[in-house]
Amino acid sequence: MTSIVDSCNLKSVPSKFRFKYDPTALSCDAFPVVDFSALRAVDPVQRSKAIHDLSKACEEWGSFILVNHGVAEELMNATFSALKEFMSLGVEEKKEFAGKDVVDPIRYRGFDLTDIPNQPFTLWREKLWLDVNPKFHCPHKPQSLREVMVEYKERCGELSRTLMEAISDGLQLEHHYVDQVLGLDSSYQFFVANYYPPCPRPRQAIGLVPHTDICLFTLLIHNGVPGLQIEHEGNWYNVDSPNNSMVFNVSDQLEIFSNGRYKSLIHRVLVNERERMSIALDYGPSKETIVGPAAALVEKDGRAMYRSIKFEDYIERLFNNGEFISTYKQ
Questions:
Q1: Quick one: pLDDT at residue 119?
Q2: What's the CA gap between 169 and 174, in Å, rounded?
Q3: What does the pLDDT read at residue 3?
Q4: Which of 114, 127, 170, 272 is placed for a possible disulfide with 55 were both Cys, Cβ 3.0 to 4.6 Å?
Q5: What span, in angstroms and rounded, lies between the C-alpha atoms of 180 and 183?
Q6: Distance set, CA 169 to CA 32, 94, 177, 213 (Å)
Q7: Reduced to 3 states, what is the DSSP secondary structure of residue 51?
Q8: Which residues of the chain are under the pLDDT cut of 70?
C-alpha cells in the first residue's frame, strides 16, 4: 500500500499498522465547557465566573470545550476543505514537503513509525505540520491552502492571546509579567493537520497513541467524526465536542509554568470506518524563552516543582531523546 488514502479498498488491516490496546472509554455529561464570549464580557461578575470555570477545568481535567469563540464556521470549513485538497494530492507531490529534519518548518508524514518497546507499528494517519509563527510557512499547493491558513492563523492567534490573559488571571499573575516572561510577542505556533482515512478494522489500528502536547496549550477542531479520547483519573473518556466548538488542551509548558497546578493532558485518537480530520493549533512561548515555574507561584508553593529549560531545547530533547515532561519534575 503506497498510501493509507487507499484504505477504502482494504478488507483488513496490514500487519505494520496493527496495535493492541483497549479502546474502551466512558462518556461524560459533565465535561467542562467555557464560554469565550464571557471571558471578554464587560460585566466583571460574568468574566470572573468564566475565568473561574476555565481555571477549574485546567486544574481538574486539563481540557475543556470552548464555545462562542468567534472564529467563523465558514472559515473553519474552508480550512478543512483546503487541507483535504492537500491530502488528496499524489504521493510524490506530498513528498515534496516531507522535510529532512524534525525541526523543519513544513513536514508532511504519510507514515509515522511509533516505537513502543518490542512492538513497532505505524500510525493510521497522514500528517502535515506547519510552523506559522513568528514566521509563517505553508506548502505552495494547493493554491487555496496558504490564503485560508493565513486567515485561520490570525483568528486563532487573537483567540489565544485572550485565553492567555484569562489563564494569567486564573493563576493570579499579571498579564504583563506573563507576556514578558514567556515571550508571547514572538510566540512559537504551529498547526498539525491530521487525516485519518477509513479503517476496515478500527480496533486493530490507532491514529495517535497516548501523549501530551509540547506547547502551552492546543486548540483543536475536527470534522464531526469522533475519535478523541482523554485520560482523567485513570479512565479514558470520549470527547464529543459540538459543531463549531474547539477543544482546549493544557500542554507541557503550561504545566511547568503553573508549577503543576494545570496538568498537561494525556490524550489519544482512535480511528473508525469513516474518514476523520482534525486541525490543532499549538500555542507556545518564544523558542528562546527559558520556561520554568512562575516566580509568584513558586513563592506560594515554597519550591519549584519543575526544572527550567529553554523551550527550543525542550522540543529538541523530546524529539531526539524522548525526554518527556516527567523528566523535568523535581
A1: 52
A2: 7
A3: 55
A4: 170
A5: 5
A6: 18, 43, 11, 23
A7: helix
A8: 1-9, 111-119
Alpha carbon distance 162, 153 (integer Å): 14
H helices present in 171-221, as ranges: 175-182
Contacts of 301-308 with CB under 8 Å at 24 or more apart are 301/259, 304/259, 304/330, 305/259, 305/260, 305/329, 305/330, 306/255, 306/256, 306/259, 306/260, 306/330, 308/256
Please report, as a single letter, which amino acid is at residue 200: P
> Helices in the chain by DSSP H: which ranges?
36-39, 44-60, 73-87, 91-95, 143-170, 175-182, 252-257, 295-301, 311-321
Grid cell, residue 79, equals 480550512
Which residues, 6 or more positions from 129, have their beta carbon under 8 angstroms from its beta carbon?
Answer: 106, 107, 108, 109, 190, 191, 192
Angle between helix 143-170 and 44-60 (nearest 10): 100
**Residues 159 and 71 sit within 8 Å (Cβ to Cβ):** yes
Residues 227-260 pLDDT 10s: 999 999 999 999 999 999 999 999 999 999 999 9
pLDDT for position 1: 36
How far are the Cα atoms of 16, 18, 65, 103 from residue 118, in angstroms, in the given order? 13, 13, 37, 27
Q: Could you give the strand order of the β-sheet that contains 63-67, starting from the edge strand earlier in sequence?
A: 33-35, 63-67, 246-250, 217-222, 276-283, 189-196, 126-133, 106-109
- Nearest partner of 178 among 192, 189, 167, judged by Cα: 167
Residue 277 has φ and ψ, to the nearest 5°, of: -130, 145
- Tell me: the pLDDT tens digits for 171-210? 999 999 999 999 999 999 999 999 999 999 999 999 999 9
- Residues composing the chain: 330
Q: What is the pTM of this model?
A: 0.94
Q: Whole-angstrom Cα distance, residue 39 to residue 48?
A: 8
Dist. CA 188–CA 287, nearest whole Å: 6
- Return phi, psi of residue 279, to 5°: -130, 120
- Can you read off the three cell numbers belonging to residue 294? 512562575
